[in-house]
Amino acid sequence: MEGNAGKRIKCKAAVAYGPGQPMSVEDIYVDPPKAGEIRVKIVGSGICRSDLHILDTNIANDFTFPLIMGHEGSGVVESVGTGVTAFSPGDHIIPLWIPNCQKCDLCMNRKTNFCQTGTQETMNVMPDGTTRFWTLDGKPIYKSIGCAAFSEYTVMPIESVIAIDKSVDLEKVCLIGCCVVTGYGNVVNVAKVDRDSQVAVFGLGAIGLAAIMAAKECGARRIIGVDINEDKFPIAAKFGATECVNPQKLPDGVATVEQLFQSSYGGLDYTFECVGNVRAIKSAFESLNRWGVCVVVGLPPRGTDVPINPWLLLTGQKLTGSFYGGYKPREGIKYLMDKYMSGQLDLDLFVTNKLKLQDINRGFDLMRKGETIRTVIVFDK
Ligand SMILES: NC(=O)c1ccc[n+]([C@@H]2O[C@H](COP(=O)([O-])OP(=O)(O)OC[C@H]3O[C@@H](n4cnc5c(N)ncnc54)[C@H](O)[C@@H]3O)[C@@H](O)[C@H]2O)c1
Ligand SMILES: [Zn+2]
Ligand SMILES: [Zn+2]
């Protein structure tokens, strides 16, 4: 591996050539890291719904294709660019899809978890505006969500990387980098769920299930899983859901899930929308009691609006949302890594499938069909 430092590497990556098309797993070139960058050999990379949104709909509508997705990764530093002292070859890392330089005005502001080095553009390219990925015939390939973890090698600016303990299983802890930090953070850090509260989680994918796990830990009395796919219900129970509801199969005389929660439970203290569906956001908000908090986590299609009754804001219901569970990325990942290392976070519950990179399109299909919680792409060592 060390023999490649300073040279281009030829390796396999899953390249998306455009929305609506399957990815092509092919050989690409990965440039060496420039100043302030590191090149990483990816070990594990989870498939998150946000990748699916990009592939199926180019959700943000401004990603340049062809691109390499994957933002829930883990890996080992292969080489470092000039001036990099914080990382050395062999270090184990998790890439951050929101950078955290710890120096800029935003990083110094406790009220936000954004960083000035992170822009819409740097989601697609490196901070200097160029790419490190090339097709074999010399055309540029871009990143999505800043990481490009569906490639055997990626290049990251050091603002967007956290070093982790070398003893942990990289094929598991990659999940901390998105679904776990997101689900946990929204419960513990954004909503601050309290003991004996009544909680509903809309959407029982890995994000929603991590939220359920966290709500259980916070001592919530009632944790209701809401999903249109009832195959998720027994899984949600394992994570701590006390009951589950299918909004498409409500009792006679009940028109909406929010009506059910208002009439049966007097409204809920906390709701989490982990789908990305405007109707589900409205339901989650209108399910609250007067001191309730609704957190939007799912990514709804761009250009959509949520019609809500503003009088509910006047009576005290709160509507909010976040990326990364509202954590400064380094703080959130450190918190969860410590939890994992002390045996208090069961990542095995999330991993339902492991696939090789060449089978990545099958992993995306499993998610489209609702047949997986997390598929982890595992790379050859
Ligand atoms: N805010 C963030 O920081 C952040 C981070 C990661 C992912 N996300 C977003 O969170 C969402 C969930 O991601 P995931 O990886 O867990 O996805 P997933 O596909 O694994 O899970 C989504 C679940 O929602 C269910 N669902 C679909 N329509 C529904 C409806 N109308 N009502 C109730 N349930 C419904 C599906 O059956 C599925 O079980 C996605 O939109 C993803 O893009 C946000
Ligand atoms: Zn994600
Ligand atoms: Zn910053």
UniProtKB/TrEMBL annotation:
Gene3D superfamilies assigned to the protein according to its UniProt record, in alphabetical order: Medium-chain alcohol dehydrogenases, catalytic domain, NAD(P)-binding Rossmann-like Domain
Pfam families (alphabetical): ADH_N, ADH_zinc_N
Keyword Oxidoreductase: yes
One GO MF term: zinc ion binding
Keywords: Metal-binding, NAD, Oxidoreductase, Zinc
Keyword NAD among record annotations: yes
One GO BP: formaldehyde catabolic process
Cofactor: Zn(2+)
Listed PROSITE patterns: ADH_ZINC (PS00059)
Ranges where the Alcohol dehydrogenase-like C-terminal domain occurs: 206-330
Occurrences of domain Alcohol dehydrogenase-like N-terminal (ranges): 35-164
PANTHER family listed in its UniProt record: ALCOHOL DEHYDROGENASE, ALCOHOL DEHYDROGENASE CLASS-3
UniProt family annotation: Belongs to the zinc-containing alcohol dehydrogenase family.
Protein's name in the database: Alcohol dehydrogenase
